[in-house]
Amino acid sequence: MKRALVTGGSGGIGAAICRRLAADGHFVYVHANQNLAKAQVLVEAIHADGGLAEALAFDVTDADASRAALEALIADAPIQVLVNNAGIHDDAVFPGMSAVQWHSVLDVSLNGFFNVTQPLTMAMIRSRWGRIINITSIAGITGNRGQVNYSAAKGALHAATKSLSLELASRGVTVNAVAPGIIQTDMIDGVFDKQAIESMVPMKRAGRPEEVANVVSFLASEQASYLTGQIISVNGGMI
User: Exposed, middle or buried: residue 224 (CB in 10 Å: 0-12, 13-18, 19+)?
Assistant: First the structure.
């Protein structure tokens, strides 16, 4: 049984990914930062469905805390599926954006990617099998008004995905990104109404978290063994 870690695992998209990977037969570590109780509720739901999971908490922006938690996790066996899903947004038009808004968003998505992925990589390499899947955003491809910080973080993750895939391709480890568009989660409540979604999305609806999780499931599988360095958009035809 392969072990999977999903950062930000208790949120809308993260929870769907955790449920799907558990259903696929992985032992899933559901990561949270402060809301460990919410992650534990998800773990109990996974157990009720016959899956295996465990909740854990650490701050992905804290390099030392992340490394300590992860080294303990892989002391006996590698994490072979890593889904970097942790991310935040703090929107403002650029002339009014504070340094705190800029750095906090990049710190979670981009520095968090490094702080979590780097300590796990060598164990994946030694096992000759691994899947690193970065959850990004359509904003990292097209940009978005009011989200220069968020777009910068996700766009940088796309570049990191491609570069890391080249380093690990010969070691049996694939690295890909999934870039969702408008997905029906708490994050879009009050941001996009039904009319706005219908005008922006050719499919005339928001995506479901499970539709993102389905793509992650494929990328984490043996069937995706020859697919690496790709940015896969899940956006209902927006681009």
Answer: middle
How far apart are the C-alpha atoms of 15 and 28, rounded to whole Å? 11
User: Following CA atoms 145, 158, 111, 38 in sequence, which dihedral angle do they give, to the nearest 10 degrees?
Assistant: 80
Q: Flag whether 239 is in a domain.
A: no
Q: What are phi and psi of 235, to 5 degrees?
A: -145, 15
Concerning whether 29 is annotated as a catalytic residue, the answer is no
**Interatomic CA distance for residues 81 and 100, integer angstroms:** 32
Cα(7)–Cα(87) distance, rounded to whole angstroms?
9
Provide the domain count of the chain. Answer: 1
pLDDT in tens, 151-177: 999 999 999 999 999 999 999 999 999
* Residue 92 in domain: yes
The answer as to whether 9 is a domain residue is: yes
The CATH number of residue 153's host domain is 3.40.50.720
Residue 65: inside a domain: yes
pTM: 0.96
Q: How many residues does the chain have?
A: 239
Tell me which residue of 202, 184, 83, 76 sits closest to 131, measured CA to CA. 83
Has residue 145 got a pLDDT over 80?
Answer: yes
How many Cα neighbours within 13 Å face the side chain of 214?
A: 7
191: containing domain = 3-234
pLDDT digits (tens, 9 = 90+) for 96-109: 999 999 999 999 99
Q: Beta strand 3-6 with 81-84: parallel, antiparallel or unpaired?
A: parallel
Question: Which position among 26, 120, 150, 168 bears the catalytic label?
Answer: 150
